[in-house]
Write a structure and sequence with these properties.
Layout lengths: L15 H12 L27 H9 L4 E2 L1 H7 L9 E4 L8 E4 L8 E3 L2 E4 L2 E3 L30 E6 L19 E6 L8 H10 L6 E4 L2 E3 L3 E3 L6 H5 L2 E4 L5 E3 L21 E5 L2 E5 L39 E7 L6 E5 L5 E7 L2 E4 L9 E3 L8 E7 L5 E8 L7 E7 L5
C-alpha cells in the first residue's frame, strides 16, 4: 500500500496481490459505496471521540508517546484563544518549557473545564445542550495484574480500568464500581520488620536537601513518622526528621504494600497497606476491600468453633524476681491480660531470650511490639490514675502468634 504523506506516514508500496484485489473491486462496479455520505442516524451522531481520547491521548497522537497536556498554557496564557481551538502539549514530561501548539480544534467530547466539554470548537456546559447529547461513562477493559511490589512481607499486585469507554460527558453519569482490584502477594515474612521497611525508604532521602529557607540547603536524617501521621497522609512518603519536631513528605508515595496505620480501627485479621499513595484495607484473604475477617480462633472467615477459650487468674510470684506465670503457644489468639494491682507488682514480657516489656526491675511505659505497622503486634498499656499513679497494666495480643511468648510477674516487696 502506498503512503498518503500524512502524519506518521511510512514508505509503503502496493503488493501485487493488493493491487489486483483493488482493481477487481473497481472493475466490478462495487466502488459506488465509497461515494456515500456518512450515516448520521442511530448512535453514530452521539459518538464523541474526545470521550474516548482525552487531551493527553490527543497530545500523544500528535507529538509522540511522551507528550502530555500543557495545562498552564492551555488555561491561562492563551485566554484569547478558546480552549477547544488549540492543542497545547508538553513534549518532554521532565521539561515544563517544552511546549508545542497545534492549531486544530480538540475532538468533540474533550473535557475543557469542570463540567464542560468541547463541541464544534466551543467549550459548552450541559445546560446549553439538549438531554439527547448526554453520554454516560463506561469502563475500559481491566489491565493485566502488575508484578508484586515487594519480594517479601506482603507486597501488592493490582490491575486497573478507566472510565473512558467512553468518558462521561455533557452531564452524563460516572462509571459505577471500583477502578482498581488488588491483592496482597509474597506474604512470607521478611528478615526485617514492617517498620524497618518504611525506615529504609525514609533513609534513602537523607542525601536530598530540604530548603527551609530560599537557596539554603539543609540535610537531615529521616525516620518514619509513625504515631504522628496516619491514613493516607502516612502513605504520602511522610517522614520525620530525627531529633527534630517536624514531618514532611519526602516523595510522592511509599512503595505499594508498605504498611500504614488506618484512620479507623481495622477488623481482626485485616491489613492496612499503602496502594497508590492511599492507606487501604485488605481482608484476611488478602483481597482489597473484601471485608473478610478472622474469627476469635484466628481462622479467616471461620465461625469460632476451632478453638476453646481459656481464662484464669494468677496471684503468686516471688519478691524482686520475675516469675513466668503464662507461656503463650504459637497460633494463640485474642490474648488479653490485666494486672489490677500495679502498685505492688508489674508484668514483663519475653520473646525468646529477650525482654520486650520491662525486665529491668522497673515498670515499663507503653510499648507496641514490634511496631504499630507490623501484623499481629502486641500492645502493652500502663493506665494511670488522675494522680499519675499506676492503676492498671494491660496486655493485648490479637495473634495468631508466630512465636512463643512468656509472660512474667514481679513482686516489688516481700509483704505484698
Amino acid at each position: 500500500m502506498a503512503s498518503d504523506g500524512g502524519y506518521n506516514s511510512v514508505d509503503l508500496t502496493w503488493s501485487p496481490c493488493s493491487r489486483q484485489q483493488l482493481l477487481t473491486f473497481f472493475s466490478a462496479a462495487k466502488a459506488e459505496c465509497i461515494k456515500d455520505l456518512p450515516a448520521m442516524g442511530g448512535t453514530l451522531q452521539d459518538w464523541k471521540p474526545g470521550l474516548y481520547y482525552g487531551v493527553d491521548d490527543q497530545c500523544r497522537i500528535a507529538f509522540g508517546s511522551t507528550a502530555r497536556l500543557d495545562a498552564t498554557r492551555w488555561h491561562f496564557k492563551f485566554k484569547k484563544t478558546p480552549a477547544c481551538r488549540v492543542l497545547s502539549c508538553h513534549i518532554n514530561p521532565n521539561d515544563d518549557s517544552s511546549c508545542k501548539r497545534l492549531l486544530v480544534p480538540l475532538l468533540d467530547g474533550t473535557e475543557c473545564a469542570p463540567n464542560q466539554w468541547c463541541l464544534k470548537g466551543q467549550c459548552v456546559s450541559p445546560d446549553e445542550l439538549s438531554s439527547s447529547v448526554v453520554v454516560h461513562g463506561s469502563w475500559s477493559s481491566w489491565s493485566e495484574f502488575s508484578p508484586c511490589s515487594r519480594t517479601c512481607g506482603g507486597g501488592v499486585t493490582h490491575r486497573m480500568r478507566q472510565c473512558n469507554n467512553p468518558r462521561p460527558g455533557f452531564g452524563g453519569n460516572d462509571c459505577e464500581g471500583p477502578d482498581v482490584e488488588a491483592e496482597l502477594c509474597h506474604q512470607q515474612p521478611c528478615v526485617n520488620t514492617q517498620l524497618d521497611y518504611m525506615a529504609e525508604q525514609c533513609s534513602q532521602t537523607d542525601h536530598q536537601p530540604l530548603y527551609l529557607q530560599p537557596h539554603k540547603a539543609s540535610f537531615y536524617t529521616w525516620i518514619p513518622a509513625v504515631g504522628f501521621a496516619k491514613g493516607d497522609e502516612q502513605c504520602r512518603y511522610t517522614c520525620q526528621s530525627d531529633g527534630e519536631n517536624f514531618i514532611v513528605s519526602r516523595g510522592s508515595q511509599f512503595v505499594d504494600g508498605t504498611r500504614c496505620e488506618s484512620d479507623s480501627l481495622p477488623l481482626f485479621g485485616s491489613t492496612a497497606a499503602c496502594l497508590k499513595g492511599k492507606c487501604q484495607l485488605f481482608g484476611c484473604d488478602g483481597v482489597l476491600h473484601s471485608g473478610k475477617v478472622r474469627d476469635t480462633c484466628g481462622m479467616c472467615g471461620g465461625d469460632g468453633s476451632s478453638c476453646s477459650l481459656t481464662s484464669d487468674t494468677y496471684t503468686g510470684g516471688q519478691a524482686r524476681e520475675y516469675t513466668t506465670f503464662l507461656s503463650l503457644p504459637v497460633n494463640a489468639t485474642q490474648v488479653h491480660i490485666v494486672n489490677r494491682a500495679p502498685l505492688f507488682t508489674h508484668m514483663a514480657v519475653m520473646v525468646g531470650d529477650r525482654y520486650i516489656v520491662s525486665g529491668t526491675g522497673s515498670m515499663a511505659l507503653n510499648v507496641t511490639y514490634p511496631s504499630a505497622l507490623d501484623d499481629n503486634h502486641m500492645e502493652y498499656r500502663l493506665h494511670l490514675t488522675p494522680d499519675l499513679l499506676p492503676e492498671k497494666e494491660e496486655l493485648l495480643l490479637p495473634g495468631p502468634l508466630q512465636e512463643e511468648i512468656n509472660i512474667q510477674v514481679r513482686r516489688d516487696s516481700e509483704n505484698d
